[in-house]
Amino acid sequence: MSITSQDFDATLKRAIDSKTKPLGALGRIESLAAQIARIQHSLSPSAETCQLIIFAADHGMAAAGVSAYPQDVTRQMVLNFLSGGAAANVFARSTGADIHVVDSGIAGEAIDDKDLILRRIGAGTANAIETAAMTDEQLAEALEAGKALGGAGNHDVACFGEMGIGNTSSASLVAAKILGVAVADLTGRGTGLDDDGLTRKQELLTRAAGRTASKLDARTALTEYGGFEIAMMAGAMGGAADAGKIVIVDGFIATVAALAARDMFAECDANFVYAHRSAESGHARVLEALNAEPLLDMGMRLGEGTGALLAWPLVKAAAAMLRDMASFDSAGVSGPA
């Protein structure tokens, strides 16, 4: 740490400790405020504006039966996002966040809608159970498109969500390979598989994992097992961090994208705030590997960026506390004896 950073941290600590409250009385809001201040290198930080980008794409392995839902649901849910009817839309409206939807690689013909951002890498990935999900060139294209989208705009806070039938399977495989653990340890019910469905999913993913070495770097893991939406989201997280934005990381799939982004883009994770602990079984394991403690734990497992949107008011309040709350001196309040 440079002398400048040490001086800033000391000044920051004094600023938080001098607020009109007992030391540490605001708990994690204080550490969150400190993180935001470091991201913006300011004692008057802002988290007033927020944008959610939802990346949507399909997965070749969906046809093998890794999900309780048919692949057509990806396209149907994108239309639902565009018409404003999904949970992500409702939460965005209720919190005042902007929302955009990106076609990263939905199966079939491109959807013709002026509000849909087209960044199609292909009409879905290859079947990662049998072969690499994408080429090196497709991965590079997805990462660059994501970086550009994540870095664009002047909002303070960036949230990223995803939609893609089969993407919990893809995320489980990517995380297992980056962490070097058995994919069965990270495999859950996804969209609601029953016991037989879960057993079939575990068998298929174990077979897929057997194609490659037990541990891979992030780029190779994404190429072999990723989805276009997961790769693009990882790029977007890196791009948003480069632009100095606060990045609120959603649930399991977004956290796997963050895991990959951390390995590909130096120091980007300093900007990451982890929104919630998903009910998806592998999420806690990935959070532990990242040494991340999420803000919320509400049993959610929807994705779409919904958890990130719900965490934004906490981020906004933490920044406002540091920026606007009176100190003992400014308020004329006596400090501790």
UniProtKB/TrEMBL annotation:
| UniProt entry tagged with the keyword Glycosyltransferase | yes
Top enzyme class of this protein? transferase
Which GO terms of the molecular function aspect are on file?
nicotinate-nucleotide-dimethylbenzimidazole phosphoribosyltransferase activity
Query: What reaction does this enzyme carry out catalytically?
Result: 5,6-dimethylbenzimidazole + nicotinate beta-D-ribonucleotide = alpha-ribazole 5'-phosphate + nicotinate + H(+)
Under SUPFAM superfamilies, the record lists: Nicotinate mononucleotide:5,6-dimethylbenzimidazole phosphoribosyltransferase (CobT)
Q: What is its EC number?
A: 2.4.2.21
- Indicate whether Ligase appears among the record's keywords: no
Active-site residues per Swiss-Prot or TrEMBL entry: E304 (proton acceptor)
Keywords associated with the record: Cobalamin biosynthesis, Glycosyltransferase, Transferase
Please state which protein family the record places this protein in: Belongs to the CobT family.
- Protein name, UniProt field: Nicotinate-nucleotide--dimethylbenzimidazole phosphoribosyltransferase
| Gene source species | Hyphomonas beringensis
